[in-house]
Amino acid sequence: MGKEGEHNVEITEVRVKLTEANKNRLQAFCSITINNDFVVRDLKVIEGQKGVFVAMPSRKLTDRCTKCGGKNNIRACYCSECGAKLDEKRGLKGEESIPGKIKLYADTAHPINSKCREYIQQRVLTAFKEELHKSAQPGYKSPKMPDDTDFDERYVGEGKEQRFGEGIFT
Ligand SMILES: [Zn+2]
Predict the structure, then answer these.
(1) What is the pTM of this model?
(2) Residue 137 class from Cβ within 10 Å (0-12 exposed, 13-18 middle, 19+ buried)?
(3) How far is Cα 11 from Cα 161, in angstroms, rounded to an integer?
(4) C-alpha angle 120-123-128 in degrees, rounded to nearest 5
(5) Torsion region of 5: left, alpha or beta (phi above 0 gives left; psi -120 to 50 gives alpha)
(6) Are 33 and 39 in contact (CB under 8 A)?
(7) Cα 141 to ligand 1 centroid, rounded to whole Å
(8) 1-34 pLDDT, tens per residue?
(9) What residues contact 78, with CB distance under 8 A and at least 6 apart?
(10) Centroid of ligand 1 to alpha carbon of 87 (angstroms)
(11) How far is the CA of 23 from the centre of ligand 1 (A)?
(12) Residue 86's closest CA among 60, 102, 61, 63?
């Protein structure tokens, strides 16, 4: 462990791509570079009820059809492979499930302690605020970001699925 105030994880770069202001709960996409060596992208700045927070990159959860083994979205009612009726409550079972709530996403990279979580959050939100400030200046150009990221429709208005770089970001 490092000394007080030091971090084993050192974020050496934060890139922030702002979304179109205030249309969505999703305020920005971010990527972070750790120790000059490792990039984690697809972090998100989300407008929550108590202000903005940072969401870790996540993937949509799927499970397999009991009849044919085909992969389906956890919320799907019918198998996309064989058309079998699926148990709609299957997402409520399992170790990770919260009672009464279907867990649709799982983080793919995340801190495992609150100190690291706070550190990442603070670095990302600081960069986010700086980017907001910059974006108010004339001639602002948003930074280059990876362009093949799956868009997470959970943070867009009516559940419309869009991919990074399509429409709202250009
Ligand atoms: Zn099936």
Answers:
(1) 0.68
(2) exposed
(3) 31
(4) 120
(5) left
(6) yes
(7) 47
(8) 445 556 678 999 999 999 876 567 899 999 999 9
(9) 84, 85, 86
(10) 12
(11) 38
(12) 63
Q: Where are the domains of the chain?
A: 1-58+109-170, 62-103
Where residue 167 falls (left for φ over 0; alpha for ψ -120 to 50; beta otherwise) is: left
Q: Cβ-count burial of 157 within 10 angstroms (0-12 exposed, 13-18 middle, 19+ buried)?
A: exposed
Coarse DSSP helix, strand, coil percentages of the chain, rounded to the nearest 5 percent: 15, 30, 55
> Which tokens hold the place of 167?
């429409």
Q: What is the CATH number of domain 1-58+109-170?
A: 3.30.1120.40
pLDDT at 157: 45
CB under 5 Å of ion ligand 1: residues: 65, 67-68, 70, 79, 81-82, 84
> How close is the Cα of 63 to the center of ligand 1, in Å?
11
Q: Locate 44 and state its tokens.
A: 């998100």
Q: For residue 105, how far is its CA from the centre of ligand 1 (angstroms)? A: 21
